[in-house]
Amino acid sequence: MKAIIPVAGAGTKLRPLTYTQPKALIPIAGKTILSVIVDQLLESGVNEFVFVIGYLGEKIQDYVASNYPNLKCSFVTQNDRKGIGHAIGLTRANIDMDEPVIIVLGDTICDYDLKKVLTSDVSLIGVQKVDDPRNFGVAELGPEDRVTRVVEKPLIPKSNMAMVGIYFIRETRIMFEALETVFSRPVAKSGEFPLTDALEEMIAHYKVRFDAFRINTWFDCGKKETLLSTNATLLKYAAQQRAEEQSDVVIIPPVSIAKGCKIRNSIIGPNVTIGEATKIEFSIIKNSIIGSYAELEDVLLHGSIIGNDAFVRGSSQSLNIGDNTEIDLR
Predict the structure, then answer these.
(1) Sign of CA dihedral 40, 45, 47, 52
(2) pLDDT surpasses 90 at 187
(3) pLDDT greater than 70 at residue 242
(4) How far is CA 258 from the centre of its chain?
(5) Can you give the three-state secondary structure of the chain, one letter per residue?
């Protein structure tokens, strides 16, 4: 079975980190967002992947080649940011029209029974109840969780069941036909073609049956605060990674410290992810994500995200720093 993973978004809510690094490659609980998704799919029997890339797409390609050298995959480039529906439409030549496909958005980390989803007799949409559904695609449900209608970011929602970004499609050919119908219409004010519109076309015009399946947990990777919260939650369940013992270091679990790190005279944790080959001295770090090849000296960091190759020296702050940055807080 094939999976389509759109990772072409610019990740504007996580800037400046995403100026130089795709959101899908931000480290989280010892992995990246993308590797969490790919590993979950591989473990459940998905054997081929189609990645829709765009902004900084070459970094996605390099990452996949380096970390999944035997992965059967292809890459499709979305040059224009015209939404998820447009991204999926670009994959038509890479997908077998007579086989089901699973679509997982590249920033969607969820806890759910994936094997059960992949063996479903009908198409499925992943949902979770939210307090304010106006910023989501929303699924309206009938008896036995049958999806009766889907709407993209409704002003007056008739349901609080948000679509989380996981779709199992059995009627693959019909999905692409529905996408072509959507593309023939005037583009929305947002300038994008939502996948939601094609799903609604499948339900209303083609009478395709969609059932909703409920997500156990939906990890939000869209903003700094929620990304840090997700990192803390996933660290509780991840296998703990530790750098080799350093001098005068106190580790407060859970933490994930990648290989090649040099840490001394510091306190690390709880809820800290540190990328590889990072150097930390005379510092206290908690509830933070630190990229690879960074250098931190004489700092007290909390609730912070530090990019790759960043240099920070100095005071106590809450920071959101992109790659290749030098900060001196003294």
Answers:
(1) negative
(2) no
(3) no
(4) 20
(5) CEEEEEECCCCHHHCCHHHHCCHHHCEECCEEHHHHHHHHHHHCCCCEEEEEECCCHHHHHHHHHHHCCCCCEEEEECCCCCHHHHHHHCCHHHCCCCCCEEEECCCEEEECCHHHHHCCCCEEEEEEECCCHHHCEEEEECHHHEEEEEEECCCCCCCCEEEEEEEEECCHHHHHHHHHHHHCCCCCCCCCCCHHHHHHHHHHCCCCCEEEEECCEEEECCCHHHHHHHHHHHHHHCCCECCCCCCCEEECCCEEECCCCEEECEEECCCEEECCCCEEECCEEECEEECCCCEEECCEEECCEECCCCEEECCEECCEECCCCEEECC
What's the pLDDT score for residue 23? 80
Say whether pLDDT at 243 is over 60.
Answer: no
Q: And the tokens for 169?
A: 């499609």
Q: What is the 3 state secondary structure string of 14-42?
A: HCCHHHHCCHHHCEECCEEHHHHHHHHHH
Residue 69 CB neighbour total at 10 angstroms = 7
The whole-chain average pLDDT of the chain stands at 88
Confidence grade of residue 225 (pLDDT, cut at 50, 70, 90): confident
- Best CA proximity match to 289, nearest among 220, 329, 248, 232: 232
User: Rounded to two decimals, what is the model's pTM?
Assistant: 0.87
Q: Tell me the domains of the chain and their CATH numbers.
A: 2-224 (3.90.550.10), 240-328 (2.160.10.10)
263, 296, 257: which is closest to 30 by C-alpha? 257
Asked if residues 91 and 52 have their Cβ atoms less than 8 Å apart, the reply is yes
